[in-house]
Amino acid sequence: MIEEYQEKQPIAYKILKNAILNDEYSHAYLFETNGFYESFNFIMAFIKGLLCPEKKTKKENCNNCHQCEVIESGNFPEIKIINPDGMWIKKQQLQELQKEFNEKALIGTKRIYIINHAEKLNKHSANSILKFLEEPDNDIIAILITDNIFSILETIKSRCQTIRFKESLQIKDANEIETIKRIIKLNHEEELDETIETKIKKVIEFINYYEKNHLNTLIYTNKLWHPYIKTKEELIDAFEIMILYYKDLINLKLKKETEIFNSNKEIENILEKNKIKELCDKLNIIIEKKNSIKYNVNANLLIDKLIIDLEGGI
Ligand SMILES: [Zn+2]
């Protein structure tokens, strides 16, 4: 139920809850997940709220009428989910979707399509959906979801209402390490402060080293990375820190306010060497690699692959 997210995402909750209650919704939403790990469930709760036939009679979202149950089971025919097919969301996927949606709705009055990883819409595929986004039938709602708003094409952004989820982590603090520590601590309550602090520093050092030495970093991962980052949880945290770091590098490059990191000599160095597009690409690669961390991940291979991909995947 959408009420579950009232505390975790107060602003987004208010906007979405209002849309449900008043039945006044946008025809295209762009959700910026900001690393909020329950993003998809939250969005599905919103969709359920919009579609539920009981919503007018009940103040709370019902979640137990027949329709809500079918949606929950993933078998509701009027909701289509598109995921990237390989590197990109392909034009053909969107054409098929539009063809299907041009026929009338079978059940209910609204039809919804969800595009996961909308940053994977390239110019080619995006073009095929622009008109669809712009002049939808009254009953069609587009839901675009992205981990990286910086890579969303402007033509798409301008056609959507953007909903930004609050980061699972806190905003800028006078002390960077303290801020990050608070985030990481969510995962490792039992660890000593110094241990965590060392890890954060090591991850930043690793990135700084990589930005200076590129592929040569491969030779030194045994020194730079592996002694500090061992478990799967540590690996996820490390990637989270890298994501925060690159996001702020992009913010600084765009002369926007940063979330955590303040500029310093190392950062200036990186900004000088990277164009905005390069930073965005790197951020995408790190997000992708983080999402690929599964149970018995081989950390050595993952880090090697990360460096190689950051270098343009030679
Ligand atoms: Zn219901």
Question: Topology of this protein?
Answer:
Layout lengths: L9 H13 L5 E5 L6 H13 L14 H8 L5 E4 L8 H12 L8 E5 L7 H12 L5 E7 L7 H4 L3 E4 L11 H10 L7 H21 L3 H8 L7 H22 L11 H9 L2 H16 L7 H12 L4
Parallel strand pairs: 1-4, 1-5, 2-3, 3-4
Instruction: Give the number of domains.
Output: 2
β-sheet strand percentage: 5-15%
User: How many strands appear in the DSSP assignment?
Assistant: 5
Number of alpha- plus pi-helical segments: 13
Straight-line N-to-C gap: 46 Å
Q: Assign an overall shape.
A: globular
Q: Assign the CATH architecture of the largest domain.
A: 3-Layer(aba) Sandwich
Major beta-sheet overview: 5 strands, parallel
Spatial order of strands in the largest sheet: 2-3-4-1-5
The low-confidence parts are: 169-174
What would you say about this model in short?
With 314 residues, this protein is an alpha/beta fold.
Describe this structure in words.
The chain has 314 residues and is α/β, with parallel strands linked by helices. The protein has 2 domains: 2-164, Rossmann fold (3-Layer(aba) Sandwich); 176-310. It has 13 helices and 5 strands. The protein has helices spanning 10-22, 39-51, 66-73, 91-102, 123-134, 154-157, 176-185, 193-213, 217-224, 232-253, 265-273, 276-291, 299-310; strands at residues 28-32, 79-82, 111-115, 140-146, 161-164. The chain has a 5-stranded parallel beta sheet, sandwiched between helices. Helix 5 links the parallel strand 3 and strand 4. Helix 10 packs antiparallel against helix 12 (276-291). The protein is globular and about 60 Å long. The chain starts with 9 loop residues before the first helix and ends with a helix. The relative contact order is 0.10. Residues 169-174 have low confidence and may be disordered. Bound molecules: zinc ion (ZN). Zinc ion binds next to helix 3.
